[in-house]
Amino acid sequence: MATSPLPRWAPTPSPSGPLWHPSSAAVGASSTRHTPSPFRAILGALCRFGRVPTAVSQPAAPAVEAAEVTGDGGDAGFDGADRHRDGRRWEFGRDGGVFITWEDVWVTAVDGSGGRAATILHGVSGSARPGEVLAIMGPSGCGKTTLLDALAGRLDTNLRSKGEILVNGRRQKLAFGTSAYVTQENVLMSTLTVREAVYFSAQVQLPDTMTVAEKLARADATIREMGLAGALDTRIGGRTSKGISGGQRRRLSICLEILTRPRLLFLDEPTGGLDSAAAFHVMSRIAGLAAGEGMAVVAVVHQPCAEVFELFHGLCLLAAGETVFFGPAADAAEFFASNGYPCPPMRNPSDHFLRTINRDFDMESGERSLSKPSAADEAIRVLVNSYKTSNISEIAKKAMHDINEMEGVMIRRNQATFLTKVLVLTRRSFLNMYRDPGYYWLRLGIYIAISLCLGTIFYNFGNGYNSIRSRSSMLMFIGGLLTLMAIGGFPSFVEDMKIFRSERLNGHYGVSIFVISNTLSATPYLMFIAVLPGAIAYYLTGLQRGVDHFAYFTLVLCSCTMLVEGLMMIIAAIVPDFLMGIITGAGVQGIMMLNCGFFQIPSSLPKIVWKYPVSYISFHKYALQGFYKNEFLGLVLQNNQEGQEKTISGEEIITKLFEVEMGHSKWVDLAVLCGMVVAYRLLFVVIIKVLDMVKPMVKGARVRSPIHCTCSFQNPCYSL
User: Fold this and answer.
1) How far apart are CA 121 and CA 150, in angstroms?
2) In Å, what is the CA distance from 406 to each residue of 178, 410, 428, 639?
3) DSSP3 helix / strand / coil % (the chain, rounded to 5)
4) How many CB atoms lie under 10 A from the CB of residue 230?
5) How does pLDDT run across 284-310, given as a tens digit for each residue?
6) Strand, coil or helix: 155
7) Which residues make Cβ contacts (< 8 Å) with residue 78, sequence separation at least 6?
8) Strand partners, 488
9) E strands, 574-639, where?
10) Distances from the Cα of 37 to the Cαs of 25, 40, 325, in angstroms?
11) Can you tell me the distance from the alpha carbon of 589 to that of 564, in angstroms, rounded to the nearest whole number?
12) H/E segment holding residue 45
């Protein structure tokens, strides 16, 4: 066998583009022919023997018969080939495949304060088909990720958009299993190993019609496809520990989203952080999945190597928010050459395209001025105008029209049951809390240290009159200031919230499942950090002996800690930045503590605002009242006040001195605390749901607001 001049890691044939390439014929009546390449020639010969060799074993793609291309463009791909499987045309729109088209899409960033706007996308159009990989390319800031977000329905509230985005010819939301989105940022649970992350995700995403063994087999196959078999038992790592490399994290992010084999896959910089060999292997696997599963892949790629560029069926090239080229990737070089920008020999075509239309450095080099546009500005103007009047543009419009006439129905895929998701996410969250020292273990150590301080400072209260003040001060510190330190776990919870938002947007599970699993996994730890430090402080200080008194003390302390966690969940939903969240949480608890009845007795509180309603929504009030009743009722202390009896009962102390409400027992105070624990978590769910409804309304209000935008290639929009 002859030695290939290509690198060892590069399979000689391209495993995606050539599969769909027709044996002959042009795309439409007037389109250009594809430039022949050794990749396509060798693959054509190999396909006749029924197999395609690759450097790494992978599932064989279904056989695809090349068909002569007609000019209708309805089921023809970017490269002009019709799709066949098992001897018949692939009915993607009817068999669950997804076509997506976008026509005349404009996206504008709106500054709500001043009504100013900067247009990011200027009337772009295009389509993506099952079985194909569409690459969105362009210089930095040209609108690549904005277009991807618009197609996936993930635009921020400060962005307004208009235009038609249709899925299978209709306006419809992408159901679970239909689409997946891999963001540019790797949002992963740092304490898990690669194996655990993929296994947990497989059990959550894949339906219960599959056995656990089948789910794990799918997970193992996907791990091998992404080249992660060598890092299976390595922790992902994060802010506190070193784990897998950045490239491996990128591949893991992709791995988690292709477990369900979605019909539509959005990738934002899938090759970011990867070397050329890893980038080729990852994209070849994705192209193979697209071919074998009928998956439509839309990927934002910054600068692919030549071998990766060979894998793309379609290319959407943007510059300054305008479409420079949209069509078969193999035709882009000829399009540039026909307009006076030929690609030099031995140069990567993607490098040539981006260098031609990149104008970011023209101002610094002095090439651009208001009166004299730069070479890049002129190239963009020529290419944009040429594309609008080209046959390639007409073919793309005809293809979009034919796709929109299909009106196919998306098939919603089954998911794991509610109970399965809760159990799996509870195990995952419990494991994460166990391994993350900042979640509970550091807090436990601090609690033990503070409890020892309390126990030694207030050691053995005794039964004297002065012990009244000591008991109340110690109980207030336990119920207020000690639980205040629960905000120390907020940074870890913010990381969990990032993962929750990412997985929720991809349809893995909902907010109710997240709340239930988080509560179930956190409760054992909260009980532990309430019992151990609580026992140290309780028995060293000499509070009332008795198992029932200690059990009540522990339950109230645990309830307060859970309440603080619930409060911080609410704050995390509103204030996602952990520094601002810690400050906000401490401020809210400080206000509640001021109205709990310790620093100012209830009768002296101003009735407006501070007593009604703040004191009644302060959980510190019920915790302190429960502590007082648990400690002082049944207790008789010495009274050294002149002119009074020698002893004083605990009931008299809390009634006259502390003004505790005695109309109900201490168990009612505990029940109120437990009710508030549930209420805080329900409020978190409500806030998430309300934010989902409010964001579109806010976006609509901004869209209706007057904006002013003047832009062109020579006079671009200013930055907001």
Assistant:
1) 10
2) 18, 12, 43, 90
3) 50, 10, 40
4) 11
5) 989 998 998 889 999 999 889 999 999
6) coil
7) 129, 132, 134, 313, 314, 327, 328, 329
8) none
9) 608-609, 612-613, 636-638
10) 16, 5, 21
11) 8
12) helix 38-47
